[in-house]
Amino acid sequence: IQQIKSGAFAGCSSLTIIELPDSVTSIGDGAFAECSFLTIIELPDGVTSIGEYAFLGCSALTIIELPDSVTSMGVNPFAACGSLKNIRVSPEQPVFAVIDGVLFNKAEKSLICYPAGKQEEAYEVPQGIQQIKSGAFFCCSSLTSIELPDSMTSIGEYAFSVCSFLTSIELPDSVTSIGDQAFSWCSALTTIKLPDSVTSIGDQAFAWCRALTSIELPDSVTSIGNRAFEYCDNLTITVQRDSYAAQYAKDNNLNYTYPDANDWLNN
Q1: What is the spatial distance between Cα 187 and Cα 216, in angstroms, rounded to a whole number?
Q2: Alpha-carbon distances of 42 from 17, 45, 183, 230, 250, rounded to whole Å
Q3: Which of 50, 213, 221, 234 is 20–30 Å from 74 (CA)?
Q4: Coil, strand or helix: which one is 264?
Q5: Can you tell me the distance from the alpha carbon of 70 to that of 64, in angstroms, rounded to the nearest whole number?
């Protein structure tokens, strides 16, 4: 057997241990998704690619070790693995690296997976990292604050989705894009400031952030996706007059204000 095809073991919740033969070279998208009692899986040295969300929701998996042969990986294969505290790779791994149990792509300078089972409340992304990849912090419910480096340029789809205790995150001036549902279901997030560098905000980027009360959209924003602030019932958006964001707020019947809206009090 050379391939574990997409979804091959998805939802096989009674499995606790799976042994793969040395002949396996690829693991497909969602191959072991929702194998909720899977505690042990050893990836053979011949595996070269792991598909997106391959182990999604394997909530009993506590550790994963990537062989040096792995050179290709889809969207966070280990997303929502609630007991996973550590990912291991050797120093010889040509593509991937681990710092404090967190998985990175070296060439892309991107963060691929923050294990959802880590118990720290705060995390500082290392300086030099440029991308938070799609689903990287998905369902990391222990985190309350995340600090991003000045080197950061993009935040992928679902990057911080369902970080349900995240209350604080500051986007550095280098960030230009926020992906679809990047902060969706961050139900404890009360405020977030977007820097002047941001040009695009994806579909449902802040949807279901029910505690979000204020957000300021800079003039630099020229693209906002569908339902970006859906179910943000307590939100007032601060926009610049005659800006793209101002027109978006009006078109979508959102509560909005201007930075100088209360200047009349001082006149």
Answers
A1: 18
A2: 9, 9, 32, 41, 54
A3: 221
A4: helix
A5: 13
